[in-house]
Amino acid sequence: MSDVVQVAGEVIAIRRVGAYQHLTIVAPGVAEAARPGQFVALAVGGPTSANLLRRCFSLHKVSPSGAYGGTLDVVIAAKGPGTQWLAGLRAHDKVDVVAPLGRPFPIPTEPVACVLVGGGYGSAPLFWLADVLRERGCHVEMVLGAASEDRLFGVVEARRSADGVTVTTDDGSAGRRGWVSDVLPEIITRTSAAVVYGCGPMGMLRSITEVATAHGAVAQVAVEESMACGVGVCMTCVMPVRGKDGTTRMVRSCVEGPVFRGDRVRWEAFTDGVCRVPADTVGAPRAGGH
Amino acid sequence: MSDVVQVAGEVIAIRRVGAYQHLTIVAPGVAEAARPGQFVALAVGGPTSANLLRRCFSLHKVSPSGAYGGTLDVVIAAKGPGTQWLAGLRAHDKVDVVAPLGRPFPIPTEPVACVLVGGGYGSAPLFWLADVLRERGCHVEMVLGAASEDRLFGVVEARRSADGVTVTTDDGSAGRRGWVSDVLPEIITRTSAAVVYGCGPMGMLRSITEVATAHGAVAQVAVEESMACGVGVCMTCVMPVRGKDGTTRMVRSCVEGPVFRGDRVRWEAFTDGVCRVPADTVGAPRAGGH
Amino acid sequence: MADLTTRLGTLTLPNPVMTASGCAANGRELHRFFDVSELGAFVTKTVMADPRSGRPTPRMAETPSGMLNSIGLQGPGIGAFLDKDLTWLKSVGARVLVSIAGNTAVEFAQVARDLVAHPAFDAVVGVEVNISCPNVANRGLVFACDPMSSAKVVSLVREELPRDFPMFAKLTPDVTDIVAIADAAVRAGAGGLTMINTLLGIAIDTDRMRPQLAAVTGGLSGPAVRPVAVRAIWQCTAAMRENRIDAVPIIGVGGVRSGLDALELLAAGASAVQVGTATFNDPSAPRRVLTELESALDERGFASLTDVVGLAHDRKVTL
Amino acid sequence: MADLTTRLGTLTLPNPVMTASGCAANGRELHRFFDVSELGAFVTKTVMADPRSGRPTPRMAETPSGMLNSIGLQGPGIGAFLDKDLTWLKSVGARVLVSIAGNTAVEFAQVARDLVAHPAFDAVVGVEVNISCPNVANRGLVFACDPMSSAKVVSLVREELPRDFPMFAKLTPDVTDIVAIADAAVRAGAGGLTMINTLLGIAIDTDRMRPQLAAVTGGLSGPAVRPVAVRAIWQCTAAMRENRIDAVPIIGVGGVRSGLDALELLAAGASAVQVGTATFNDPSAPRRVLTELESALDERGFASLTDVVGLAHDRKVTL
Ligand SMILES: Cc1cc2nc3c(=O)[nH]c(=O)nc-3n(C[C@H](O)[C@H](O)[C@H](O)COP(=O)(O)OP(=O)(O)OC[C@H]3O[C@@H](n4cnc5c(N)ncnc54)[C@H](O)[C@@H]3O)c2cc1C
Ligand SMILES: Cc1cc2nc3c(=O)[nH]c(=O)nc-3n(C[C@H](O)[C@H](O)[C@H](O)COP(=O)(O)OP(=O)(O)OC[C@H]3O[C@@H](n4cnc5c(N)ncnc54)[C@H](O)[C@@H]3O)c2cc1C
Ligand SMILES: Cc1cc2nc3c(=O)[nH]c(=O)nc-3n(C[C@H](O)[C@H](O)[C@H](O)COP(=O)(O)O)c2cc1C
Ligand SMILES: Cc1cc2nc3c(=O)[nH]c(=O)nc-3n(C[C@H](O)[C@H](O)[C@H](O)COP(=O)(O)O)c2cc1C
Ligand code: FES
Ligand code: FES
């Protein structure tokens, strides 16, 4: 956790891609240290902003230098005030950047087969990951899933970056109707994949983990917990994760994650938008609670 | 207080003029009802703004229709967060407009001589006022004063709108070195002016009133009190003013002003950035206060 | 379209959105922007027995997502209020909630008596007793900071009003235990509670290096304080649901700027909401909040406003 | 360049800017953005005797110009804190203000005892006693809501610390009379006060129609609450200047985002300031505030930080 930079970024391009906005931001110093799976924390709203907290986005890609100095790309779904503000930026607008943050996807030392699964904008970091894996000689399959066609991101890019691409949508508007977990078993089996990488909503990551584990593959998932700071100082982004010692702790997903081994995450603690503290967690409240 | 409109305005031009920013905003419905001396209240900071209160500016000019529909012009000195945000707007940015507000400068029924005195951006509403007065056959002299040349506004416009123009600056960087009150006696005497109109800082308005009164002219001054709403509902913009009945009340400068007869204002209540409630004001606190 | 009717004890209103006292003057100014009779009720600026000049200026300071004010209850006194302001509000068909105060408990009662005696009283749908103001008899301590003083004012005003006439005690959040104050007010006869008034705050002018307000302290309001308002409403509602205090309707106020903000206060337990400081940002705010609230209910499939009042207590996650 | 040295009773610091407890973890994370030893002091996350998992998530909600948090004092327990965190802070040369708490008054004392006994204690310049946390023995009522509980904790901790060792009691603003709590803490042996901790608040998720935080209530912080912090500092300083309570130094905290915000708290009476929530917006905030404060003093012609402490009281307008 050392090579992070904070820099006054400048938007140089913003374009709509399906339901998303794709931003390119000049942010010198980020690309050199960044790895796939890491993220950026952006300040929102400018100097008069009432929205203090940073918004976090997976790094889609980075380039160490170009006509404008190093750049980074993010893919943003406009939801609340912060993402709406970001989606409304124009070229030359300023945005404060803190990046790269968090632990990247671990890269296998051997050239094994891998499946990369992205839900909605969750695919954003996977093309760069695919490139890195293929450089290492890995066979790479991608699965892109979304509610509907406009919420898929990067189908064309996927065909360039991966050896095989499968698309699913909940409503069947593109690819196969259904969920990524419907197609995953067949792909793992066919490619004898050793690692399944996932990025997307929590429910999807849980099922990816289950499928991968059931088929003898390791799941590496990038989680999306609500974050206030992104840099490890606020303790809002915690989730229960088993350590190597088997003990569960409430760990910060911004510094110890966002990428976790799927089988270490205590998925059963997440229900209905709440994550409870499992009773066997270190320091869990005893009767009376805290 | 009836013909006010609230409308989503759009900036169509913004340009620097000396130390100020001159904004032209499309705001249909404002021009028709507006008179010189009235003002506009602008919301600042956009949808994520932490600055809730409106910022008020004299209407510099209005045009009922043009290529874009009715427009209004304001001249803004960037000081705090709100005026800085406004000064940073670009063409096609949106700004919520409430206008026209307040009581305009009263126009004499006879074609008398008038002196119009503006301090800094306080001259902004005076050119339009001069045009209206000259249409009525009044002889119009203008006095523009400021700390330094870059803080003068509209010297060229003044030469077009007035029969005579005098410029003063504190540092002598343009026109005569000194204050507007230094030159005012001679102009009132020479023109036998019946009315002196003033717009600018409080201290200047007070001395304009004193000079005018001493020379047998009526002072009509547009004051600048700190305003939260601009529309008469918050009671923050009050000042002690004598009514026709001779009684002093704390009146709202946004609805009963901003233009007051200078000799009605209890200037002695203003000291060192505070305005006390004179003891003879209606409802003034008795011992113990409230 | 959801049924927006709300019931506040003996009072039924066509919708739950009101102005907040002191943030809408007495109606004429906002009537230029929307028809004030369309609101559930129009809440007037707190009025006292005599005319008051209010405090010296500066009286306000902008703060992050809020403001401080030290208006000092400037107003014309109850007599002029009744003849001019209330009479005008009646003429446009507004339902009026009249906010009253006094320097002493007895003065509150006197103001209430004058109100009831006036011909325009039939436009009045309720009285809001602003006990969040200084008690001259008790070293200027705010009435609502002390359960006994609160109870005294409420019971004296109660005696002046017709039986069962809607009466709301307006509480300050600047207390260690707001439920205790609510309890005292309700026991003394308040048929409902309005919460919250402003929080005591200070801002310093860093150029002059002195307080920005001439009066030093002011009341903090605006979206900044909304979480405190929601919490106060929640705490009193929870106490009522658990029968720790008698159940009465709550009017929520504090930081409402949008229909969703209003929905927050309602879900926490308020049966109506007032829009205050947001009106300075947008003079149409009270009317706009009503429209937005209506859409918010429709989008969420609620057939009636009453379905959402206190709903967050039922949906609270059990841990 | 102004002399930024500040004196807090027996403690002298090269400058008045600190982190706020719980908003800077225990140093490593921010050390990536600036050298934490450059701050006047580094205030650690409140530590208790045993490890604590903290509360379920969601633990935070963004609010206008602020946020709510319900972290629940997650932490490693005093043992691990001392061996890992304090030892690291010592290794980089930080001046450390250690924030401690307990479920009971006795647990506070126990934590203090462990701290004093540790080899890294020489990096500790003071102890901040976070009495704004729930007292398990008193139905979970926050210690700092009650003068007696506050005094008990303070006096027990005092006994564990070396004579005259700097000790600050951290107060909550959620009380009717903060001066009374300050008085109790000072009489019990607090050498100074830190104010304010967060305000109790709630936010409702209007899609789920339930509280946004799993724990329902949370602490409100950020620029939104700055006027409340300035007011609390002002009131206690005024009471000290008028000899109503004993004079001790105050560390100001609440809503500081810029050097001018810090100057507000100093002018109101604080001798040092902590930067909390603003750090989430800008991880360099504590260090930036220091630079900005230095410029602000220079621009205003103050030769020394001590010249501005409490200055707004002297410059207050007399009406
Ligand atoms: C590691 C990581 C990578 C992400 N990558 C992407 C991406 O590539 N593209 C994309 O569109 N979104 C991504 N998200 C989600 C994105 O951060 C949220 O959608 C965004 O913060 C919501 O901001 P808002 O203003 O729309 O919502 P608001 O609800 O107003 O946000 C309020 C606060 O909650 C936090 N918050 C709310 N939702 C989330 C969330 N889902 N995750 C984290 N914090 C949240 C915000 O950071 C902010 O502090 C990612 C989140 C994480 C943690
Ligand atoms: C009737 C009227 C006409 C004005 N005409 C002009 C003009 O033509 N050009 C121009 O540059 N300025 C004009 N002003 C002053 C202008 O309104 C303030 O400079 C501006 O509001 C300051 O905003 P800020 O964000 O820079 O400062 P901040 O200090 O951040 O403002 C905070 C709050 O204080 C209020 N405020 C602060 N200073 C003033 C002030 N001097 N007058 C009124 N409210 C204030 C703001 O409205 C806002 O609510 C006029 C003021 C009034 C009352
Ligand atoms: C300028 C101003 C004046 C106010 N005057 C009064 C008043 O006279 N009586 C009263 O009960 N509340 C008064 N209040 C408090 C508001 O009615 C309301 O309780 C508080 O501002 C919180 O709501 P808000 O955040 O929507 O403004 C005033 C508030 C402001 C901002
Ligand atoms: C996420 C978070 C965690 C906090 N944890 C603690 C804590 O452990 N101990 C403590 O005394 N205060 C804690 N606080 C309160 C802060 O130290 C500070 O008093 C308060 O947030 C006001 O300052 P601010 O507005 O600068 O954040 C916490 C605040 C936040 C936002
Ligand atoms: S987001 Fe702040 S610790 Fe992870
Ligand atoms: S500015 Fe609100 S009443 Fe004048």
From TrEMBL, chains A, B:
Q: Which GO terms describe its biological process?
A: pyrimidine nucleotide biosynthetic process
The residues the record assigns to binding FAD are R55, C56, F57, S58, G82, T83
Looking up CDD domains in the UniProt record yields: DHOD_e_trans
Q: What cofactor(s) does the depicted protein rely on? A: FAD; [2Fe-2S] cluster
User: Is this entry keyworded Repressor?
Assistant: no
The family this protein is said to belong to: Belongs to the PyrK family.
Keywords in UniProt for this one?
2Fe-2S, Electron transport, FAD, Flavoprotein, Iron, Iron-sulfur, Metal-binding, Transport
Any note on cofactor binding? Binds 1 FAD per subunit. Binds 1 [2Fe-2S] cluster per subunit.
| Alphabetized InterPro entries for the sequence | Cyt_c3_hydrogenase_gsu, Dihydroorotate_DH_ele_sf, Dihydroorotate_DH_Fe-S-bd, FAD-bd_FR_type, FNR_nucleotide-bd, PyrK_electron_transfer, Riboflavin_synthase-like_b-brl
Q: Which residues form the FAD-binding FR-type domain?
A: 4-107
Q: Which Pfam families match?
A: DHODB_Fe-S_bind
Species in which this protein is naturally found: Phycicoccus elongatus Lp2
Q: Which residues bind [2Fe-2S] cluster?
A: C229, C234, C237, C254
UniProt cross-references to PROSITE patterns, sorted A to Z: FAD_FR
Alphabetically, the GO molecular function entries are:
2 iron, 2 sulfur cluster binding; flavin adenine dinucleotide binding; metal ion binding; oxidoreductase activity
Q: Where is the signal peptide?
A: none
Q: What is this protein called?
A: Dihydroorotate dehydrogenase electron transfer subunit
Whether Chaperone counts among this entry's keywords is: no
UniProtKB/TrEMBL annotation, chains C, D:
Record-level GO cellular component terms: cytoplasm
**EC annotation from Swiss-Prot or TrEMBL:** 1.3.-.-
Q: In which pathway does it act?
A: Pyrimidine metabolism; UMP biosynthesis via de novo pathway
Enumerate the cofactors the protein uses. Answer: FMN
**Which controlled-vocabulary keywords does the entry list?**
Cytoplasm, Flavoprotein, FMN, Oxidoreductase, Pyrimidine biosynthesis
Q: How is the cofactor bound?
A: Binds 1 FMN per subunit.
| CDD domains, sorted | DHOD_1B_like
One BP term from GO: 'de novo' pyrimidine nucleobase biosynthetic process
InterPro entries attached here?
Answer: Aldolase_TIM (IPR013785), DHO_dehydrogenase (IPR050074), DHOD_1B (IPR033888), Dihydroorotate_DH_1 (IPR024920), Dihydroorotate_DH_1_2 (IPR012135), Dihydroorotate_DH_cat (IPR005720), Dihydroorotate_DH_CS (IPR001295), Dihydroorotate_DH_I (IPR049622)
Superkingdom, natural source: Bacteria
**A GO MF term:** dihydroorotate dehydrogenase activity
Protein name in UniProt? Dihydroorotate dehydrogenase
> What is the originating organism of this protein?
Phycicoccus elongatus Lp2
